[in-house]
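Intended use. Records like the one below are meant for learning the mapping from a protein sequence to its folded structure. Do not use them to infer anything beyond what is encoded.
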Amino acid sequence: MRKLVPFVVDALLVVVFCAIGRRSHDEAVLAGLLRTVWPFATGLVVGWLVVALRWRAAAGDARFDITPLWPAGVVIWTCTLVGGMLLRVVSGQGTAVSFVLVAGVVLAVFLLGWRAVYKAVR
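Structure written out for the chain above:
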């Protein structure tokens, strides 16, 4: 699988997660979507960089595979969740415990789920 396709899948799932959250709280989905997405999107990019740099350090110039559940998926999920929450705190957005738990579960289902399905189908 090319590297761009998994990144686009991850990014779209983060956007869907944020849109669902905004919709479930009766907030304007499109009007404030960027404000909700950017912390998690930044965390996602950090996760991808961590995986790519770690793989390169471990394997030299070998092509890295971003699709495995472990460690790639778990690292990306963790960075997306933790990075997103930290950036939400810094930017004055809410981080209630219930939100952190729901976000963790939904992002896990999204970011780890497609990788599990991909592995099962492959």
